[in-house]
Amino acid sequence: MCLQCDAGHGRGPGFWKVGKNFVAQPQPLDRVVIRFAGDSGDGMQLTGDRFTAESASLGNDVATLPNFPAEIRAPQGTLPGVSSFQLHFADFDIVTPGDRPDVLVAMNPAALKANLHDLPKGGVIIVDTADFTKRNLAKIGWLHNPLEDSTLSSYKLHALDLTGMASEAVKEFGLGRKDASRTKNMFALGLLSWLYSRETEQTIKFLEDKFARKPDIRDANIAAFRAGHAFGETTEVFEHRYEVGAAPMKPGRYRQITGNLATAYGLITGAKKAGLELFLGSYPITPASDILHELSRRKDLGVMTFQAEDEIAGVASAVGASFAGALGATTTSGPGMALKMETIGLAIMTEIPLVVVNVQRAGPSTGMPTKTEQADLLQAVNGRNGEAPVVVLAARSATDCFDTAVEACRIAVKYRTPVIMLSDGYLANGAEPWRIPDLQAIEPIVPGYATELNGTDKVGEPAFLPYQRDPETLARAMAVPGTPGLEHRIGGIEKDAITGAISYDPDNHDKMVRTRQAKVDAVVADIPDVVVDDPTGRARVLVLGWGSTYGPITAAARRVRLGGRDVATAHLRHLNPMPANLGDVLAAYERVIVPEMNLGQLAQLLQARYLREITSYSRVRGLPISLSELETDLVAEIDTLTEGAAK
């Protein structure tokens, strides 16, 4: 059908004529932030994930922030049970899921109340009116219906009976009332897909595959999705529909990926590059469990997984697997790290490879299991008995979890040491477009395990000396059990510096303590210098981050620079040891600000090591640092510094 531009039929510009009907021409936008919110059983995560997939397939850059309730099943319609999914999609490179949504899709009163404070004035609200009864309003402390008074007068409100329209659309399938009402999320997805010019074919194919064994549920969800899309096309509720173009990206093959999935793929790749079997010994814990789930599906790639009865058994099995010649790994979150520490000390003493992935969550104790935090840094660096140094790395984004996991495997194998990789709940569940790497371009990892005798004993006979070291890495000679003639002792008691026999000699212990520390320090040879982003070279303030603060720092710095101010940024992946040039970088700036989702743990480490003042910027809210707040505070800091210099 030919589209004909029509600006002279009383409808004004911005409409196209299709036959006898007038259809709104999509208005271009460069970016949109949408938040889907509802009960934990309303399918908000599925809805957001599907909208993300469609946006990614159109070439938008995307970043997401799923937000789950901690309760397994909070009472329906209550504030603790609200689940949300925020998506930022744009036609340019983005690094955060956005601070505040432009559009809030609320499926009940609780979802509206829980998220309304984040919506800026003038924002769009699409709300399902079906549950706005006196009883449901009373559950959340509202005495009056906000849809009927002036509460929402500052917003663009679209109050629609999404549940009623979805139920009507699926009536022919004979579903019960409850099952019929559950299709409201697909109706909402269809409506938003129309509103933002998303394709429909892939979502329909997804629903066909997901519910292939339940034809009635499959057909009902597809019908509701199509009905929502059709409602958008035929209603006059919305003044415009919108379109966000593709973002420029490097040529290559892309897919959507979460941090946990990227971590799983990185562990597999690291083991393959080392020619070792990957063994994961873990106990399920939020928000790290998805790594275990994914790796359990990868027997086709030689991955062995063991779901242990507790955290200690999980890490102990991984240590045993590494001793046996595999690459042992374990995954957990903060509470599990506390339990694993003694066994990590065993891996330090025996000097064998071990990768420990800590997907951090809010604490202490059980804390807020589904919320994000960065408060395990000091635990990772110092949280063991005795002098027990380990290498600590941190991923900066969902896609960077892949590279960081490969790096953790490389260091663990090369230096015969445990490596702790820090992720967090925000990275674990958030999704980004990932340019699938060329695996051939990733450097091989050479285990260099001993296969023959490497020295002589006290009487001059050929012998295997398990603690004889590589002069560059200080990694000890490691032999896989069963290698003929290379039998040796292993265990948690202090070792003789050469033979590996049990030793209580004071001088030997001092030597071994210093050697283990020197080995971790030697990893700095494999760490690239920290790179500073200082476009003008005139910045007096450096913003230094680690982990998932990369997104807010980068976005806030862009805004500060657009406002005509100079600011430098840098980001650390390697937290122990730190890059060799970091001291010189810190000394080059008058003010160093470290944003963290803790009470200043990296700032404390930097001050102790480099003996200079560090300004800590702490936010511990269970949410990513707000880039808008950070921008405002950086502007104030820079202006104060400038005014002080002028005086």
Automatic annotation (TrEMBL):
Gene3D superfamilies: 3.40.50.920, 3.40.50.970, Pyruvate-ferredoxin oxidoreductase, PFOR, domain III. Transmembrane segments: none annotated. One of its GO terms (molecular function) is oxidoreductase activity, acting on the aldehyde or oxo group of donors. Residues 41-229 form the Pyruvate/ketoisovalerate oxidoreductase catalytic domain. Residues 270-493 form the Pyruvate flavodoxin/ferredoxin oxidoreductase pyrimidine binding domain. Keywords: Oxidoreductase. It comes from the Bacteria. This is 2-oxoacid:acceptor oxidoreductase subunit alpha. It comes from Tessaracoccus rhinocerotis. GO terms for biological process: response to oxidative stress.
